[in-house]
Amino acid sequence: MPKPQQGYICTVCGSFSAKYNGMCSGCGNWNCLENYTESSSPANTRPKVSGAVPTQVDEIDMSEESRYKTNISELDRVLGGGIVQGSLVLLSGDPGIGKSTLALQISQYLEDQISVLYVTGEESMRQIKLRAQRLNIANDNLYISCLTDIDVIISTIREYISNKFTDTENAISNFHNPGIVIIDSIQTMAVSSSPSLPGSIVQVRECTHILSSLSRELEIPIIVIGHVNKDGNIAGPKVLEHIVDAVLYFEGDRKNSFRILRAVKNRYGSTNEIGVFEMRETGLHEVQNPSAMLLEGKPGTVSGTCAACVMEGTRPIFAEVQALVTKTGFGTPRRTCAGFDYNRMALLLAVLEKRIGYSFGTMDVYVNVVGGLKLEEPAADLAVAISLVSSLQDKEIGEGVLFFGELGLTGEIRNVSSAQARVKEAERLGFKKCIIPRQSLSELDDLSKYSIDILGVSNIRQAFEALKK
Questions:
Q1: CATH number, domain containing residue 182
Q2: pLDDT averaged over the chain?
């Protein structure tokens, strides 16, 4: 019989070392090595497992996957129509952003469909009850369990489904078929057979693999809540994205009431959709018209403010872009962005200086997107450039004017997708003028049927001239 291997294992990355070192050679962290002894079970005692029988491709059932409607339209939009049976969904975001609140609200809307098992390792049952009362959640099919051992959780779910509990053995014997399981959070779960601490990469990945196998075996959806740490990838959701079926990120500032739910991975739907929520005392509330919300309170007689339009999936989203250009009091001017890419702003400033002749070399430049929205689509380039020049010259743009288009290095305005959807939404919101790339005019059928003035431009200089018309 071979001698069991002894040494030290890193609780962060799982690297093995025969000798004790203060720093782990795998991840570079200090004081993270723990004593480890390999199991002495001989390899030849493992049971023989027969191979699985392959299935012919024509015999695979292609019936439409069953989905559970959460009755939260913003969440269903992001998920692609609802929660798919047998799927593993990762709900992640910064601590305190509203992940647990959303998970608990899902159980309220699923009351008439399936039962919900809420497993928490961070809070007690009384704390969950207090939050449920604050959110006005009254669901007879919601069951709470405070567990951290993943093996115990798996055993509990299997026993419920196999109806092993009776009325005399368990007080909740009527809960035999959990339709959905919520794990809050994956960083608090642990496998007893692993020597790593809860929250380490080894534990997080091992627990997620076990939950993934369970969801497919029992055909029940599982929602896993994961926190984002400072790096976003050490023991965080980044190491789990290849395991789960869908990854939902909660974005927004905790000091701001608005939250944006974005899908960065979805095997059952699009990854371009977003959901907009507002955090109130009674929980998260849907924002059915995010464009009107983001443009609410937009000043019309102030320079440096402009309306931009970006596409999030099939939905056009309007946002207010604010720019402030002022003379610097230091040798090196400051550049600050909030909601817009910093490098993209530097590129736009270089184009405006080279192609138009505006000088920003001695000016501090600040760009802000109101409402906490992040403008990642290049279609916002034209609106940001217009707001920068408006603040530099201290000239207001005027009310009811919309811009969208990508700005190239030679100053040209390039075409963007979904021009017709953007123009129709601008018309619905009451805009009076829309300045778009000239190539986008071909996507519009008949300009006379629109009640909004549509002007096509080829370069940034023509965009400034169109404002005077």
A1: 3.40.50.300
A2: 83
